[in-house]
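Quarterly update from the structural biology core.
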Amino acid sequence: KFEGSCHFELVQIMQPGEEQRIQQIVRLLDEIHEECENEDVPTDFIPEIDCGSANNGILKCCVRNIETLWKFAMFAEPFHTCFKLTYKCVFNSDTQTSTEWNEKCIFIGNVDNDGTFFLLLPSRLECYDFVFTLEANNLRTQQWMTRSTQHTVRVPSFVIDMQYEVNERVEFRAYGEHHPRQAQIVEVLDDNQYRLQYEELEEEDDDDDDND
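Predicted structure, tokenized:
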């Protein structure tokens, strides 16, 4: 029989000298953070954008001067807003029928270190123009900086044969295979032909497994 109350306390046991090492690391991080806060960063940032073709409804964009922007994003988290995309779709070049301007936030986690990010565009029966600008967020002041110049990308109809580019990733089926596999285009050939690079799957011999 157990009577009375019982109190447990969780105690963290440190090895000799471990507490001093932790304090040194904390002080070092504080110094790095203070240096970054005092660093002379630009007061404005204008994205310089390179755009690829919108094959398969996927548009690859790259901010060439992204290194300057990362100075604003020191110690930022992947879910923090990095860019604001302002866009519209122009469906008919004759009548200039278009949608209203819309806005979409792009998070830091969606942008690669080299400034590359991808936009998934709607596929339509008719070709249309995707028009957009990009603004960067100053994570220190939480204010939008100067927007980029306006870009226009032609989005082809989904019934038109797609023209792929080098380094694009595609799915294909080798002769005699039923399931597609992933590959990367390494060379564009004539007559809509491509040279692909992919991983070759090797099958293990069941007999060898039984003998092991």
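The first helix runs from residue 18 to 38.
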